[in-house]
Write a structure and sequence with these properties.
By secondary structure, this protein is of the alpha/beta class. It has one domain: Isochorismatase-like (Rossmann fold). Strands 3-2-1-4-5-8 form a 6-stranded parallel sheet. Keywords: Hydrolase. This is Cysteine hydrolase.
Length: about 180
């Protein structure tokens, strides 16, 4: 039997309505993440929460020790579940995530969270590069509107573009419903 872990990336208060950096449909993504967490717990899979904090209080969001940097109540970790604190976009960079997964004999990771175009993307690519089999649950991830060189990219399109790229070479993509039914 393959050992699997669920990695819940940056589902933190600042990404929700009223937070400092709200994402498009974050509530729906968090609801799906909560369903994934419940299923992983029921199966006895490792659930790892990743929490981002920037280095300074002047950060645009996720300021150290702020309420906005806390894990959202919809997906709050149980005492037995590890929380990996990161200060970079990539959850594997300068953290104990890889040693934690390796110590548990993890071969497959399921990733959900925020932001699709940043931390989910980075964690997915890193996990694949490190040799883990990766599944991204696309409807348990969220993004926001982007701007590049005067071009406005709506959140849904940014999310779709990044999911398409990850699905091409880095991960299997699945909906929450299909993943839970498998």
């Amino acid at each position: 039997m393959t050992k699997q872990a669920l990695i819940v990336v940056d589902i933190q208060n600042d990404y929700f309505p009223g937070g400092k950096w709200p994402l498009h449909e974050m509530d729906a993504a968090a609801d799906n993440a909560a369903r994934l967490i419940a299923a992983a717990r029921a199966k006895g899979d490792l659930v790892v929460h990743v929490r981002h904090e920037f280095a300074t209080a002047e950060a645009p969001f996720f300021a150290p020790g702020s309420p906005g940097a806390a894990i959202h109540a919809k997906v709050h970790n149980q005492d037995s579940e590890p929380v990996v604190l990161k200060h970079q976009v990539n959850a594997f960079r300068d953290t104990g995530l890889e040693p934690l997964l390796d110590a548990a004999g993890i071969e497959e990771v399921v990733i959900c969270g925020a932001m699709s175009h940043m931390c989910v993307d980075a964690a997915t690519r890193a996990a694949a590069d490190l040799g883990y089999k990766v599944t991204v649950i696309h409807d348990a991830c969220a993004s926001r509107d982007l701007d590049f060189n005067g071009v406005q990219v709506p959140a849904a399109q940014a999310h779709a573009a990044f999911m398409a790229a990850l699905g091409f070479a880095y991960a299997t993509l699945s909906s929450t419903r299909d993943h839970l039914a498998a």
